[in-house]
Specification:
The chain has three helices and no strands. By secondary structure, it is mainly α. It has one domain. Helix 1 runs antiparallel to helix 3. The radius of gyration is 25 Å and the shape is rod-shaped.
Length: 130
């Protein structure tokens, strides 16, 4: 019986530690993806403004340029900035990150929780072993 409890304790620890480490690693990966998305958004923004300036110099109204960059933003999975949502871009990106973190960490945290239950049960069971 002691061997079973010892194995359960070790398995519970490994599951808990593994779930926490995997959740942390997933969070780091999501932050890296977000940084890349933000960098790409700024790059598109700079290109958009440079091309819009050239379009205005040619006498173009810039609708084609806006449509082009709107499509590029959409292709990158980034909400295109507008005058209406510009001030809220940071909040929108933060919400996207937190949503992705919760979804990505869910399975790992469940894994860690199961490990805690196993470890706790093994620990409680050890109280009754002579």
């Amino acid at each position: 019986m002691r061997t079973v409890l010892l194995v359960a304790t070790v398995v519970g620890f490994v599951m808990t530690a593994g779930g926490i480490v995997l959740a942390y690693r997933g969070a780091l990966q999501e932050v890296a993806r977000s940084k890349a998305r933000v960098a790409r958004a700024f790059e598109l923004w700079d290109d958009w403004h440079a091309e819009s300036k050239l379009a205005k110099e040619r006498g173009d109204d810039g609708n084609a340029v806006s449509a082009k960059y709107g499509a590029l933003y959409e292709a990158e999975g980034i909400t295109p900035p507008t005058w209406a949502n510009g001030p809220f871009q940071g909040v929108m990106e933060a919400e996207r990150i937190f949503s992705a973190l919760v979804v990505g960490a869910r399975a790992n945290l469940i894994w860690a929780g199961v490990g805690l239950v196993i470890s706790t049960a093994a620990s409680a069971g050890s109280l009754f072993v002579d």
